[in-house]
Amino acid sequence: MDFSTYLQKHPDNNGYFGPYGGGKEYLPAELQPIFEEIDEAYRTICHSAKFISELRRIRREFQGRPTPVYHCERLSQKIGGCQIYLKREDLNHTGAHKLNHCMGEGLLAKYLGKKKIIAETGAGQHGVALATAAAYFGLECDIYMGEIDIAKQAPNVTRMKMLGARVVSVSHGQKMLKEAVDAAFEAYLKSYKDTIYCIGSALGPHPFPMMVRDFQYVIGEEARAQYKEMTGFLPEAVVACVGGGSNSIGMFSAFLNDPVDLYGAEPLGRGTKLGENAASMTYGTDGVLHGFKSKILQDENGQLAEAYSIASGLDYQGVGPEHAYLHDLGRVKYETVSDLEAVDAFFKLSRYEGIIPALESSHALAYAMRYAREHRTGSILACLSGRGDKDVDYVAEHYGYGDEFAFKD
Ligand SMILES: *Cc1c(COP(=O)(O)O)cnc(C)c1O
């Protein structure tokens, strides 16, 4: 495979990355022209100098980009292996990478003359990022959320309301993310003329896997240039955590054509059995979910399994279709990291570097630490997708403050 032209050629015009993708045939007929409209609009504006320079200005002035690359000298020394570097997406406005694609989606909504953006949210992270974009662009914003998630994620619900979004409670079925997706799609069908649906990761119907990748590409593009400027070289390896796959695909895209090993860190949760983890690349099989074909956690009858991870942002049964393709090509390796390994990395980065990472990002860091133990020389660059303020109460309640944790290294 020639990766020098890979990004221009993938997905194909029908939205496929090899056999995987968000083809039209997975959508109800009424929705097909709506996503086609978004695809056409995006293909036009992504080449527009005005759109690109406006997005660059927003990233610089509103989001605080570029975010730095940071060398973890103390942590690397404690481990005693190769050097660990971080791309600090936790320093992006709102504390995570999600705003990168939400601002792009908001700007697209503006260009399309839409008045409203809608989405579903599980843990509320996507809802908060999108509500932030809506406030910035002066758009209305409806966030669909399961009743159970609303009760569990009170601080994020408050943030969304503070930012002026309407949080719509979904109270049928399991009252969780899946029902919220259904309710949001239903609402979209009724209001697509002045509304645009904004998907929270590099997945869903075409063009979202491509569009979200392109908006997140900024992570890898910056990190590659910054690392080179700092050291004169490229890192031997790059790692990012994989939930739906947006921060990871943004990071990987910039290194596909380089002699750099790429690793996706998947959540192993409590174990290898179906229902104990959310490692769809490792334990999933081919299937269709939410308008796209990819690797999905399902039983032998095609019944969707439960997904579990300590990191609610990684807790999803599927994964973006481009990851399934890069996996089959052998260009990216997917490795699993357990809840406990993630918590260990969470404590170590806090204690040794003064950075409290999100539990999602702790999966990438835990893999970087494992890699460092196995490689004496060279370096690994990990995407620190978000900050851990949202997780400190949970971690303290279940694992204490890290004193009891074995700081073996
Ligand atoms: C949502 C989230 C993730 C997982 O989403 P991806 O689409 O896989 O990037 C990772 N880290 C943080 C901090 C998140 O909020």
Describe the 3D structure.
The chain is α/β, with parallel strands linked by helices. The protein is built from 16 helices and 14 strands. The strands form 4 sheets. Strands 3-4-14-9-10-13 form a 6-stranded mixed sheet, with helices on both faces. The protein has a 4-stranded parallel sheet with strand order 7-6-5-8, with helices on both faces. Strand 5, helix 6 (125-137) and strand 6 (140-146) form a beta-alpha-beta unit. Helix 14 crosses helix 15. The radius of gyration is 20 Å and the shape is globular. The protein starts with 5 loop residues before the first helix and ends in a 10-residue tail after the last helix. The mean pLDDT is 95. Bound molecules: pyridoxal-5'-phosphate.
Number of H/I helices: 16
Low-confidence regions: none
The major pleated sheet works out as:
6 strands, mixed
The fraction of residues assigned to DSSP E strands is 15-25%
Overall structural class, as computed from helix and strand content, comes to alpha/beta
Q: What series of H and E elements makes up the topology?
A: HEEHHEHEHEHEHHEHEHEHEHEEHEHHEH
What's the overall geometry? Answer: globular
Query: What topology, given as strand order, has the largest sheet?
Result: 3-4-14-9-10-13
Distinct bound molecules: pyridoxal-5'-phosphate
The portion of residues assigned to helices is 40-55%
* Overall pLDDT confidence: 95
Would you count the extended β strands for me? 14
What is the rounded distance between the termini? 40 Å
- Cα-based radius of gyration, to the nearest Å: 20 Å
